[in-house]
Structure formats: C-alpha cells, structure tokens
Amino acid sequence: MASGRSAGRVRLQDVADLAGVSMKTVSNVVHDYEHVSATMRDKVQAAIDELGYRPNLTARRLATGKTGMIALAIPEIDQFYFAEMARHIGEEAGRRGYRILVEQTLNDVEAERAVIRDREEGLVDGVIFQPARIDTLEIARLRPGTPLVLLGEAARPVNTDHVMIDNTRAARDGVEMLLRAGRKRIAFLATVRGDITESTHLRLLGYQEALLAAGIGLDATLVLQTDGFALEDGVDAISAAISAGVEFDAVLCRDDLFAMAAVRGLEIAGRRVPADVSVLGWDDTAVARYSTPALSSISPDKRAIAATALSLLEDRMNGYDGTGRHEIVPHSIAERATT
Amino acid sequence: MASGRSAGRVRLQDVADLAGVSMKTVSNVVHDYEHVSATMRDKVQAAIDELGYRPNLTARRLATGKTGMIALAIPEIDQFYFAEMARHIGEEAGRRGYRILVEQTLNDVEAERAVIRDREEGLVDGVIFQPARIDTLEIARLRPGTPLVLLGEAARPVNTDHVMIDNTRAARDGVEMLLRAGRKRIAFLATVRGDITESTHLRLLGYQEALLAAGIGLDATLVLQTDGFALEDGVDAISAAISAGVEFDAVLCRDDLFAMAAVRGLEIAGRRVPADVSVLGWDDTAVARYSTPALSSISPDKRAIAATALSLLEDRMNGYDGTGRHEIVPHSIAERATT
DNA sequence: ACGCTAATCTATAGCGCTGTAAATGTCAAT
DNA sequence: ATTGACATTTACAGCGCTATAGATTAGCGT
User: Fold this and answer.
1) How many C-beta atoms surround the C-beta of residue A259 within 10 A?
2) Number of residue pairs across A and B with CB atoms under 8 Å?
C-alpha cells in the first residue's frame, strides 16, 4: 500500500539495492536465466514486486542493439488487401516476438524513398515494404542498411528479397477456369489508361497466354480500360464496353473492387451474373465474401506471404547477407456466386 | 565512392573526430541549433556526409526519455472501421511527428489487459486504445503509468480520457430520418444473443427514445437478435424475422456489415430495398459506398475522432494530469441508395 | 586597452540496461 | 583435505546520444 511508485521511475539498480544483490542478478531474474538459485529468485522477485519495477525497453535496446520491431510500409492501411496483410503480418510477427510499426506511404514517391533510404537508425530491426510508386532501379540504387523484404510485384531488384504470388500463372488459372465453365469471350478489367502497373501487366500476360493456349485469338476490345482506380471508373468502363457493343460472357478483374464494379455495371445493363456473364475478382478480400452476389476471386495465400516475408526478414536480421531471394507463394481460386 | 560505410556503424563521436570538433557541436548541427557559426556548420555537415552518419534513435530516446511513438491498440486491423481509424490516426500522428505502433488485441481479454497493464516501459509515449472485452471497472483498476486515451463506447472510467460519438443521439437521428421518410415499423438489427455490448446498448436506447418521442409504441419483436457477428448471422436473423411474420419497413443496423446482411436477407425474401424496406447501416465504412445497393449509414467523423484523440493524448504526454475528459465528436448520416 | 555581455564551443556525466570477465561457492571424486 | 568442474553471483564497462555547466572567443561601449 505504501509503495512510493513515483511515476514508474524504478530502475534495476533500485531493485538491486533493496534486494541487496547486484544489478546483474536482478537482470537474470527478469530474464528467467536458469542458473539462479530458488532463494535468490524469490528474494529478488519480492523486491521487484514491492517496487513495481518494469524494465525500460529503450535502455535494453540500446544495450542489445535489437529493437524487436519491424516496420510495415504500405500505401494505405485502410485498403482491404493491405489491411488483411497487416493483420497477418501482425499476427505472425507477434508469434515471433516482434511488434509492428505501420508506415503509410499514401502512394507518395517521396514517402517511399524515405522508407528505403532510412535516414535514421535503431528504430526497427527490419522493414517489410510494398512499393507502389517507386521502381526497381530506384530501390536497387537506394539500397538501405536495414534488412528489407519487398512485397508485391511492382518491383524486384535482384539484390533484394521479395515475396509474391505467380501473377501470370494465377491469371492463366483464372481464365482456364472460366473456359472450363464454358465461357467463350473473356474480358479483362482493367488497366488504368496510361498507367499500367507491373502487376497488372503480369496478369494481363497470363490472361493472354491462357487464351492463346486454348486456341482463342486475342481481341483487343476485350481488354477494358478505366480512367482511374475508383469503383465508378470500373463501372464506367463496363458500361462503355456494353454500349459500344462489345460482346463478352466473362470478366477477369484486376482486383475485387473492379469485380464489384463489373457486377454493378452488368446489373445496370440488365445482364445477369453469373448466368449471362461470369465475374472473377482478385485478392479475395473480405468484400469478396460480403458483396452481393459474393465474388469469386483469385486468392493469394496471405498467411503464407506473411510467414515467408517474416522468415526471409529474420534471416537477414540474423546476418544472412546473400543475394536476393524471390519466393513464390501459392494462390488458389475462391469460387463463390459470380462464376 | 570510397566511403567505407561499414554497416551504419558511424557514431556521433566518429563525425566529431573527423571534423575535429566536440560531439555536442555535431549534435547541434544535426538538430539545427541556431547558435552555430556558418563555417562550423559546413565543416561538420561535410564530415556527416562523408561518413554517411545517421543518428541512432534508440540512443536518442534513452537520453531524452521520449520515444516519438504512440501505440494504437485495436481488436483487428482488418475490420473496416478499425482499418479506417488506423489510417486517420496514422495520418494525424504523422502530422504531429509521431509514429504508430499497431497492437492487435484480437478480442482477447488477456491481450487487452496487457495493453492497460503495460508491463514494459519506454516503448511508446502514449497509447490509444479501443477496448472490446475489458470493462470500465477493470480499466480503472489497472490504471497504467503511460498516457492513455480510450476510443469507442464500451468503457469509460471517469479517470481516463475518452473520445466517442453520441451513440444514443446518433441512433435517434437515424430513426427520425426513417420516420420522416414515412417509415412506420422500424426494426433494429442486431444484438448478439446474450452478448449485448455497451455500444449496442446505447444505440438500442436511442432507437427506443426516438420511437417513444414519435408516439410509437415499442415492439420487442422488432429488435432482431443474431447468433454471432458474422454476415451470415445477420442474414439468418432477418430471414427468421420475415418467416416468423414480423412486419417492418425499415431496419436500423448496428454496423455496416449487418446492414449488408439485412440487404441480402431482404433480397432473398423478395423484398425490395429501399422500396419495401429501408436499410440504414452504421460506421460509414468503405463497404457502405461499395456494396450494391450503396448503403446509407450513420457516419462518425473519424477524422475528428483521430484528431481529438491525439490532442488529448498530447496533453497527457506533456504532463497534464487532471481528471478524465470525455469528448463527444460529431456524426452525420450518409444517405445513399438504401433509404 | 578593459570590462562586460552574448555567442560559440567543449568536456563529461548520465539515460537504464546487458555482456563480459572475474570472483566466489558448491559438490563429488580423488 | 584437495582438486576440478560447474553453478552462482558480482563488478563495471560500454551501447550512442543529450544536457548541463563551464571554457573560450567575439563584439562593443567607454
């Protein structure tokens, strides 16, 4: 009751003084070091409890050189895919004894450069970074001192670790599934006009490969372009295609948001999903499950991405200094109501 | 080119040695201290550049006692509402010079206790915490040493700062809007059977107040219960009510997820939204905009919540030690296609 | 020149912890 | 008893930075 816990200012030395032992012994007790006698352990623990001692992590870090923290740098935490990745990475990191510092780059080039350049040190032990604006070359050039693992397909310098799914293969799988279901004319939604990202490019490639492999000629009018990344842009693109008389009985979409846009655009035009047109999304985020009708979606194994990224990063943090490793993580297709 | 930057191990002292000055002078240059001569500044900066010096934040923290970090403890980062709050808090924190450490409690009581109890020190300067399981009394009892601001309505001990919207009022506003639109029998979805949370309780209260104020008697069958928090549970509750013959022409929902569930359940039953039944969600998350039809939703001002929480927290971090302040933040109603 | 204030710069003691090396204690086997 | 071989405990030097107090230099009026 009369414990004068003055604002948590109890130091290891205070505990040591009270218990009449050395600082190191107290430290040993705190860390459950095995070679401490039971008597000693009890005596020290009593002192710790009496004073309400709580270790100062900053000091511990300075002494050990480890922070126990990992930065997760992503464009926007409130985008479904990133939110889900953040969750998995957070859980996986927790399991391995790390905490997550979230850094939002907000699609800003300067913010992304800052992540790589890391102007300060000792903040985190490593960084998991999904670039959106910065390109491969620039990442290679700004090569940071802090261990780094990249996510996504937008950039992958040979000298840096990187985790991704096989986008081309996944797109091919999606198209093949649609073909097996009897679809003949499959559209691809959507590449933002004049701003085709690397991942969209890979997906488009797989789309084309699958069609060619099935002996179906490419039709450029089936690659639908949008004016932006918003839902409305996707709806507009679908509507435009329909009123332009483009015929299609399936749409492979670049992400779930555009899949929702496709569904909406088709409904507006009076087409039934999936009776008239199948829609296949990408990322398999929660909205795919929640929207009506529930979206079928190409599903990257997010848990595996998180686990793999953490493993690569842990290697680096433990001193591994070899060349970049590029891990391919499995994907599947979650079939729901739109195919 | 020939800079031997050996793994960022350059210390302040190294720079000082190279420049032939004291550590403190280098420190002054790094911090843009005004009383440093131009010559000196240039000389030191040259040494900094040559060695590629980057300050070690951990050491700085130990010396200053400030970490520049704020913990954000929320149940799950991938729930729409929390993801959006995380974004706003992240942005606002960035503006004020803080970084965000995300701590997922995953609805685990022990994890929530750990947040309050903070077993360690010096990790963050303050904590923003949205409790989900832990109750008011327990928070008051575990009263931590680290500055704390609570979010949400599940708990609010008098001695702790707290930010929320006026839930009762918001529910009343929602019901009044539905009544103005001519709706007569308004249902409330949903309280999980046997697990009514404090915020649901407040919302239910506002729902009842508005009905009574309009001279409409309460009908217990209009308060729909679910078996869980998943979308399907909401759909089931709506379906059950319909097949039990409960008549209603509007549904006020506890959150956007249940609003989507309501829409789906109504569609299954062949009811048109909003022609036959209006649906009003809560939280105004991105899914409200994206789902078809787009959900009308009660909209807490998330940006204001973030800004207010950070302000209260900054006060505390700057030494304010008065009694708990309870800030009410504005809300509005985003009208879309379901009302 | 001299004294005085203000501007600059330096030396060094921490911040609270861990790691290392060394000291001490213990116990079974000579 | 004496000796190893361990188990247990201690002392203290850092980790890299900031802050304080003091030393030095500069500027200026008389």
Assistant:
1) 29
2) 139
